[in-house]
Fold this sequence. Notes:
The protein is of the alpha/beta class. Helix content is 40%, strand content 14%. The protein contains 22 helices and 15 strands. The strands form four sheets. Strands 1, 2, 3, 4, 7 and 8 form a six-stranded mixed sheet that branches. Strands 9-12-13-14 form a four-stranded antiparallel sheet, with no helix packed on it. It starts with a helix and ends with a helix.
Amino acid sequence: MASSKEELFLLIxxxxxxxxxxxxxxxxxxxxxRRLVREALCSAVPAPRRxxxxxxxxxxxxxxxxxxxxxxxxxxxxxQRHTVKRILTRLQHEAGAEIAYSTVWDYVSQRRQEIxxxxxxxxxxxxxxxxxxxxxxxxxxxxxxxxxxxxxxxxCFVFAFRLAYSGKAVHRITASCGQEAFLxxxxxxxxxxxxxxxxxxxxxxxxxxxxxxIRKSRSRxxxxxxxxxxKHFSITPFYCEPGLRGxxxxxxxxxxxxxxxxxxxxxxxxxxSLDELNEAFARFExxxxxxxxxLRIRAIGQDFAHEAPLLLPLPGEGFETGxxxxxxxxxxxxxxxxxxxxxxPARFIGRTVxxxxxxxxxxxxxxxxxxxRHPRLTAKGAERVVLDHFLxxxxxxxxxxxxxEALDQARREGTFTPAHEAFWxxxxxxxxxxDGTKALVHVLLLHRHLQHRDxxxxxxxxxxxxxxxxxxxxxxxxxxxxxxxxxPTVTASAMPAELVTPPELPLPSLTxxxxxxxxxxxxxxxxxxxxxxxxxRPGKELLMTMPSMEPAPATGPPxxxxxxxxxx
Length: 568
């Protein structure tokens, strides 16, 4: 038997042509009515099924009223037009109608579009293909993603920067979508691409860039910091229409975020840090260069090779993307930045410091000296406490170490190892609770100038000989380093490059900026021969001719006011 009506028609027409069967025989063979056989012999394609028109006698008397309301809505504000619920309510209260909601919905959903088209209020949706020149236009967008960060499901954001001509895209995942992440994403994209688009860069009306949208215009009131940033990098922004109306104006990057989420972030990635995921992004972007977009005959990498030389060069002077704060260190040795708290060395308690909030870290300065560096936290009320910042306090209060938050975080991060635990237990057993804890604090102080693995090796060697003093641990740590042929001391060469190089200040020197813009001074140097004459002492002849300045001796009685007498 045929599986569809089209196949049944083909079988009937074939048997009628090959075997010459009659209409009655064909109907008997395929167990259908003779009308269907005659229909199949007349046309190989079945007639479309007619949709029955539903009549609503209860709504019929009110159709003209509803049409008038829908026509009046064309001149009403968009947010004050009739909904199906409002139409049904008015019919019930004003005309006493008893009609079902679905009946009104079926009629209004069809008539609203028909009335709008008849009045010329709507046009058919259409799009115009945009011509993209190489090295000119780009698009920017943020997208939400979920990742398993250090074993915890975390909401993050993907910054996407896409060149319109080649389709080359640069991505960076951050813990927030604030202004610092927005600016840092631009800097990362410009460095990766090796230049800046010379044309327009298309944006949504993101709060990091736009403070206020001017109604019914393309004008925007920009955020002051974003205005400084785009002037520094010579960016020409183009802001799309608000809402869904402007989504098509940067459709390339809108689809890019979804493509990236489906192909490289599914299933949910499990990483220990965002840096690990961003390094993987760099490899994914290299693999994408061999892909062809749509019906293009060239790959992304081939088009980008033609586009890269046309990009504008990067400015010689950098731009600090972090946000500057001036918090005060509380009595717990913590500073509050946004909705999170970070620890600083206890010696700065009560002082005002400078915090630089970046997309992935928080750097704290006292004057021009960096005193703390933490990975950025995003959960409201989150705290990061470093045990090393409170060692001086723990020497005076050793009993606070056991229940401290700093010790708990050090254990979770792995910096407080089982070797430290064993040394602490042995020291308390030998020296007592207080002195044993102080001995542990002295050992923790060794980490400031000795490498971590050397201190751990020193602790194990000290425990092997039954010693519980920091001096023995320091000696054994140096021996462990010398055995491997290296220096145990933490020097500038062993430190990370970002800690050795003085960090950029949030605000550059105004004097240096002004001096760099002044023209070169080409005036000749002044002659100092005449001024040298003033250095010689006057001759004896000049001294002899000068009148004496000594006062004459007094001949009368002494005066009660000698100063007044001298003046007279």
